[in-house]
Design goal:
CATH topology: Hypothetical Protein Ychn, Chain: A
Number of helices: 4
CATH superfamily: DsrEFH-like
Distance between the termini: 18 Å
CATH class: Alpha Beta
Low-confidence stretches: none
Largest sheet: 5 strands, parallel
CATH architecture: 3-Layer(aba) Sandwich
Mean pLDDT: 97
Strand order of the largest sheet: 6-3-2-1-7
Order of helices and strands: EHEHEHEEEHE
Shape: globular
Number of strands: 7
Length: 133
């Protein structure tokens, strides 16, 4: 089975990912194929360059082909991305073409995006289940 994780709850990345999922991935005992992880709110801080969880996660993601993506608005607000919101302008109006937004100061392999970007990134290897934590 293939799964994608969406980290939305406070401390989901630092606790649930860092203390449960990541150690299982590293040990090869997680039991499912993880195809992607999407980070919201303060959970994006786990992807900051030098963060112990993020550095370990980047290594596993590279080895296993796991997508690591953080919410563009969350990353911009926390100075972990540069550019503009991908699919809406600063007034909150939707865009028909995505704006440029790139990770800044994150671990290797992290992408910045919103739901259209996530769907596109997972289209060739879709999860069977999406789990929100």
């Amino acid at each position: 089975m293939k799964v994608a994780y969406v980290f939305i709850s406070p401390r989901a990345a630092s606790y649930k990912l860092g203390q449960m999922i990541l150690p299982q991935l590293e040990a090869g005992t997680h039991g499912v194929e993880v195809v992607g992880m999407f980070f919201f709110d303060d959970n994006v801080y786990a992807l900051q360059q030098g963060h112990p969880i993020g550095e370990r996660l980047a290594k596993i993601a590279r080895e296993k082909g796991i997508l690591l993506m953080m919410c563009d608005m969350c990353a911009l607000e926390r100075h972990l991305a540069k550019g503009s919101p991908r699919w809406c302008d600063t007034s909150g109006e939707g865009r028909t073409q995505p704006a440029a937004c790139h990770p800044a100061g994150t671990v290797e392999g992290v992408q910045v995006g919103c739901f259209p970007d996530l769907y596109r990134a997972l289209a060739d290897n879709p999860p069977d289940q999406v789990i929100s934590l």
